[in-house]
Amino acid sequence: MTAKISKSDAEWRKQLSPDQYAILRRQATERPFSGKYVHEKSPGTYACAACGQALFSSDTKYDSRCGWPSFWDVVDGDHVELREDRSHGMRRIEVVCTRCESHLGHVFDDGPRDKTGMRYCINSLALDLQND
Ligand code: FE
Questions:
Q1: Does this model's pTM top 0.90?
Q2: Strands 44-48 and 54-57
């Protein structure tokens, strides 16, 4: 198990940009097609923008046309936690980084049928692409 990171709200505010703070620590969502990784195709590992834990591989990134970077799998099931999210009148599954408990996005079951069938729909601002 990776060691958890625990920071105060003030520390997160200081470390993150206002937009990143809103998403990662307050469950906001960036506007569709606004994020820098929507059309990103270079190889690498997408890490948590708050704590650096590896989350997704470019190998599982695909074009879902939903407006956010989408992946059909995680690099390690222990690195994300799925939580039920009933906000905004919807019933969704929230994706959370296990190391720092930051909000990353949501996961849906309309992903590629020939893969896992899952679509991890993740905010660009919650990710940091580390090229191999
Ligand atoms: Fe994290």
A1: yes
A2: antiparallel
Instruction: Tell me the CA distances in angstroms from 108 to 73, 76, 116, 122, one per residue in order.
Output: 11, 18, 11, 11
8-17: buried (b, 16+ CB within 10 Å) or exposed (e) per residue?
eeeebeeebe
Report the separation in Å between the CA atom of 83 and the middle of ligand 1, taken as the mean of its atom positions: 15
121 is catalytic: yes
Nearest in space to 83 (alpha carbons), one of 93, 75, 91: 93
Neighbours of ion ligand 1 (CB under 5 A): 48, 50-51, 53, 97, 99-100, 102
For 94-116, how does the pLDDT look when each residue is reduced to its tens digit (9 = 90+)? 999 999 999 999 999 999 999 99
